[in-house]
C-alpha cells in the first residue's frame, strides 16, 4: 500500500515516462470505421446529458477549486494562490473533505460530473458516463486495469469482457489534468455516443490516477476530449480527437453546446439548430493561446460590461473550456465586478466570495463588432461555503496580462458554436427559459 502510494507520487511527476516504461513492439492500429444508421455524409446528432446515478456530493477547499484551472492549463498562479497552494501541499491532501480546511479557508461542495453524456463501449455494450471536455483532447475511461479499491462503487470499462475489444500493443498515454495526472494503456473497441458509432476507436484505459480524482470524480467514468487539438497524449502514435474522426461524416464540420446551469444540457454535432438561440450568432476567428502551440477553442472578445455599465471596448484573448468550473478574469475586471457586489471579500488564498443573499450584476462580453453576450448574475455563484452564510464566486481573478478563461458558468448561459470549417467560434444568447 505504502509502496504503491509512493510510486504514484513518482509517476505524477513524470507521468509520461511512467506510462511508457511498459512499451512493447509498436504496431499500427486497426482502422477506425464509422458505423451508424444515419447517412454518413449528412449526419446530424443531438446528444442530451443524463444525471449520473452514482454522483455523490463532495467537499473541496476553496484553494483547490481556484487552483484547478492553473494546473490544468499550466498557467502562472497569482501570488496569494501560489502561497496557499504550496502550503496546502505541505499539509498533505487538503482536498479531502475529511481534513480541516486552512486557518481562514473554507470548504465548498463541487458539482462536477452531475450531468454527463452516456457512452456505450464494447460488445455487449458497457454504459459509461463521460464528461465532454472542449479544453482537452484525450478520450480516457475508468478501467478494469486500476487497483481494485479504486473500482469500488464505480462504473468502469472492462476490455476483457468485450468481444470487440483488442489491446493496441505498445500504445500508452499520460495526461496531466487539473489537480493530478492519469496514465494507462490503449485499447480499441466500438464506441457509441447516441447514434454515432465508431469501431476500432482508441480507448485510453487508466491504470492509475491521482487520488484527487478518486474522491472528486465520483461519477464521471471518463472524458471525451473535444479540444481543437492536433495530437492527444498517446505515445508513440498520437491520435486525433474523436470529433476529428467523426467530422468528415457530418453534414457540416461543427458542434454546438447549449449547456444549462443545474440541468441537463445538449450538444449537437453536424448542424446549427436555430431553435436553440435568439437573435444572431456572432462569430470570431479561433486564435492561438501564446505558448500553447494552439489546439484550444480560443478567440478575442471585443470588450465587456458589468451590469448596466457602459461597454468597455478592450480586445482580450479568451480560452473556452467545458471542462472547467471557474471563470478567470484579469484582475482589474474581476475587481470592478466585485466592487458592485455588497459584502464581497477576498480570502488569504485570493478567492472572492460574497454573502449568498447579495445581488449579482450580469456580465456582458462582445463578440465581433456588435455581438453582445449577456450572462445573468445567477451564473456567478460556485456554491455555498461551509459557514452557511457566504458563497464562493464562480468568477475569480488572474494576473492582469492573462487571457480570460471562460468555462461552464458563462457557457451555460449561451449558445456556443465550434466551427472547424471556418476555424471560428460563434456565440448567441439563449431565451431565459432555455438557460433555466
Ligand atoms: C511554491 O513552491 C514552488 C515549488 O516548490 C516554489 O518555486 C515557489 O517559490 C513557492 N512559492 C511560494 C509563494 O511559496
Ligand atoms: C473483467 O472481465 C473479465 C472477463 O469477464 C473478468 O474475468 C474480470 O474479473 C473482470 N475484471 C474486473 C476488474 O472487473
Ligand atoms: C461481463 O459481461 C457479462 C455478459 O454481458 C455480464 O453478465 C458480466 O456482468 C460482465 N462482467 C463484468 C466484470 O463486467
Ligand atoms: C502530431 O503527431 C505526429 C506523429 O507523431 C507528428 O508528426 C506531428 O508533428 C505532431 N503534430 C503536432 C502539432 O505536434
Ligand atoms: C432543435 O432544438 C429543439 C429545442 O430547441 C429540439 O426540440 C429539436 O429536436 C432540435 N432539432 C434537432 C434536429 O435535433
Ligand atoms: C441579424 O443580422 C441581420 C443581418 O446582418 C440584421 O439585419 C438583423 O438586424 C440582426 N438581428 C439582430 C436581432 O441583431
Ligand atoms: C488577441 O488579443 C491579444 C491580447 O489579449 C493580442 O495580443 C492579439 O494580437 C489579439 N489577436 C487578434 C487576432 O486580435
Ligand atoms: C476598460 O477596461 C480596462 C481593463 O480592465 C481598464 O484598464 C480600463 O480602465 C477600463 N476603461 C474604462 C473606461 O472603464
Ligand atoms: C447594497 O447594500 C445597500 C445598503 O444595504 C443597499 O441599499 C443596496 O441595494 C445593495 N445593493 C445591492 C446590489 O445588493
Ligand atoms: C456538502 O454536501 C453535504 C451533503 O449534502 C453536506 O453535508 C455538507 O454540509 C456540504 N458542505 C458544504 C460546504 O456545503
From TrEMBL:
Pfam families: Asp. GO terms for biological process: proteolysis. The keyword Protease applies. Residues 1-19 form the signal peptide. PROSITE patterns: PEPTIDASE_A1. Residues 115-428 form the Peptidase A1 domain. Keywords: Hydrolase, Protease, Signal. InterPro entries: Aspartic_peptidase_A1 (IPR001461), PEPTIDASE_A1 (IPR033121), Peptidase_aspartic_dom_sf (IPR021109). One of its GO terms (molecular function) is aspartic-type endopeptidase activity. It comes from the Eukaryota. Belongs to the peptidase A1 family. This is Acid protease.
Amino acid at each position: 500500500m505504502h509502496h504503491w502510494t509512493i510510486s504514484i507520487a513518482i509517476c505524477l511527476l513524470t507521468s509520461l515516462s511512467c506510462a511508457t516504461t511498459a512499451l512493447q513492439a509498436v504496431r499500427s492500429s486497426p482502422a477506425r470505421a464509422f458505423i451508424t444508421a444515419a447517412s454518413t455524409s449528412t449526419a446530424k446528432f443531438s446528444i442530451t446529458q443524463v444525471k449520473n446515478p452514482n454522483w455523490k456530493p463532495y467537499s473541496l477547499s476553496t484553494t483547490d477549486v481556484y487552483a484547478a484551472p492553473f494546473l490544468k492549463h499550466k498557467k502562472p498562479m497569482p501570488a496569494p494562490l501560489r502561497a496557499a497552494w504550496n502550503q496546502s501541499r505541505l499539509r498533505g491532501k487538503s482536498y479531502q473533505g475529511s481534513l480541516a480546511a486552512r486557518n481562514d479557508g473554507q470548504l465548498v461542495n463541487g458539482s462536477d460530473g452531475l450531468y454527463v453524456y452516456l457512452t456505450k463501449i464494447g460488445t455487449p455494450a458497457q454504459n459509461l458516463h463521460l464528461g465532454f471536455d472542449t479544453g482537452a483532447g484525450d478520450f480516457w475511461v475508468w478501467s478494469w486495469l486500476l487497483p481494485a479499491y479504486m473500482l469500488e462503487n464505480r462504473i468502469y470499462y472492462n476490455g476483457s469482457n468485450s468481444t470487440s475489444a483488442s489491446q493496441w500493443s505498445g500504445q500508452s498515454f499520460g495526461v496531466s489534468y487539473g489537480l493530478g495526472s492519469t496514465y494507462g494503456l490503449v485499447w480499441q473497441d466500438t464506441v457509441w455516443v447516441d447514434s454515432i458509432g465508431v469501431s476500432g476507436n482508441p480507448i485510453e484505459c487508466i491504470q492509475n490516477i491521482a487520488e484527487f480524482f478518486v474522491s472528486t470524480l465520483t461519477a464521471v467514468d471518463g472524458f471525451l476530449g473535444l479540444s481543437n487539438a492536433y495530437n492527444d497524449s498517446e505515445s508513440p502514435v498520437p491520435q486525433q480527437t474523436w470529433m476529428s474522426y467523426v467530422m468528415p461524416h457530418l453534414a457540416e464540420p461543427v458542434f454546438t453546446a447549449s449547456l444549462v446551469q443545474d440541468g441537463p444540457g445538449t450538444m449537437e454535432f453536424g448542424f446549427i439548430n436555430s431553435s436553440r438561440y435568439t437573435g444572431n450568432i456572432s462569430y470570431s476567428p479561433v486564435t492561438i493561446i501564446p505558448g500553447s502551440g494552439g489546439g484550444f477553442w480560443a478567440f478575442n472578445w471585443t470588450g465587456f460590461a458589468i451590469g448596466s455599465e457602459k461597454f468597455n471596448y478592450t480586445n482580450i484573448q479568451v480560452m473556452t473550456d467545458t471542462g472547467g468550473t471557474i471563470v478567470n478574469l484579469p484582475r482589474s475586471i474581476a475587481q470592478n465586478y466585485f466592487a458592485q457586489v455588497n459584502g464581497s471579500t477576498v480570502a488569504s488564498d485570493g478567492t472572492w466570495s460574497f454573502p449568498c443573499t447579495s445581488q449579482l450584476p450580469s456580465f456582458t462580453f462582445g463578440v465581433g463588432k456588435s455581438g453582445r453576450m449577456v450572462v445573468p448574475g445567477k451564473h456567478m455563484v460556485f456554491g455555498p461555503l461551509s459557514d452557511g452564510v457566504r458563497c464562493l464566486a464562480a468568477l475569480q481573478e488572474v494576473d492582469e496580462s492573462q487571457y480570460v478563461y471562460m468555462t461552464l458558468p458563462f457557457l451555460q448561459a449561451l449558445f456556443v458554436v465550434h466551427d472547424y470549417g471556418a476555424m471560428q467560434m460563434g456565440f448567441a444568447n439563449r431565451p431565459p427559459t432555455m438557460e433555466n
